[in-house]
Amino acid sequence: MTMVEVMVAAMILVIGSLAVLAMVDAAARTTFRAEQGQVVSDRLQEEVERIKQLPYDKIALTGVPADTADTKIPSWRISGTTFATQQNGGGASPLVFNGGALYEGGTISGGAVSSNPEPFTSGDVKGTIHRFITWENDPSCPASQCPGDQDMKRLVVAILLDGTASGGTRAYQELQAQITDPEVQPVVNENPINPGNNDQLPFTLWLTDTPCSNATRQPIVAGHLTHNTRGRCSTGQTSGNSPGAPDLMFTEAPPFDVESPIYDYATDVEPAVNPELDRGLQLVRGGSNGCLADSLDIPTVPDVLEP
């Protein structure tokens, strides 16, 4: 092999090695940029959800963020006490910050969202979080019924990644969300929120021994056969196999009288021992096949219900 051939072979080897290294480097850059994108997406969503969980009155900046002339930083969209909600600089809206004026009088206080850029690190991805909150007007609600142009709030969270050799310099990304006051009801509300009165009483009904064909509870004067309550009110009170009126449900509790006697509400169901002691309500044990008709000696014919 001549010297020329050796040099050509060496050159081919070097060129091939450089090509492989370039491919590996490109793959590494692509992987890292994909990782950066995923971290930014997750962190933006996490930050927005965290702030949305705050009480509505606390969703305000602790102060007015500092502005900048560098258009690569999201705070370039600040002008005095307004912030442009559009990335091209349009949609200027007043900022919501502690000390800012409220439409109905007074000033904002208790804001819990930091107005300063906050650095963060997630693995080998680093950057800065910027937060902005502005007032937003609902054009469908007149100022006479809504608080001027302070009907709701718009949250803007932006992340600017640090420049790296493998990831290069990337433009900031942002996520926006509208936040409404959960205690405010629509001007036209077909389903108003229950104000919640602790003095409200539940609707309570008491069962009676009176058929529902009556409007009031009837006094009990003696024991009686088991009432068949599987019919209609118009049928009236019956017993045996003829379906009759169900028992009346009344809105007043029965009168309390310690001297009131205890009656037998099923004189046709008597125990074998001490039958005179079965007064009051009691359960009936079914027959051999689980049918009450066997125990009560009632003919096993179908109920004749009203059409």
Strand order of the largest sheet: 4-5-6-7
Number of helices: 2
The stretches of 5 or more residues where confidence is low (pLDDT under 50) are none
Rg over CA atoms: 41 Å
What does the largest sheet look like? 4 strands, antiparallel
Shape: elongated
In round numbers, the mean pLDDT is: 81
Features:
307 residues, alpha+beta, 2 domains, 4-stranded antiparallel beta sheet, 2 helices, 18% helix
Written overview of the protein:
With 307 residues, the protein is α+β, with helices and mostly antiparallel strands. Helices cover 18% and strands 17% of the residues. The chain is built from 2 helices and 9 strands. The strands form 3 sheets. Strands 4-5-6-7 form a 4-stranded antiparallel β-sheet, with helices on one face. The chain has a 3-stranded antiparallel β-sheet with strand order 1-2-3, with no helix packed on it. It is elongated, with a radius of gyration of 41 Å. It starts with a helix and ends in an 11-residue tail after the last helix.
Present the secondary structure layout.
Layout: H1 3-52, E1 78-79, E2 82-84, E3 92-94, E4 118-122, E5 125-136, E6 152-161, E7 173-179, E8 206-211, E9 247-250, H2 292-296
Antiparallel strand pairs: 1-2, 2-3, 4-5, 5-6, 6-7, 8-9
Short description:
This protein is of the alpha+beta class. The protein has helices at 3-52, 292-296; strands at 78-79, 82-84, 92-94, 118-122, 125-136, 152-161, 173-179, 206-211, 247-250.
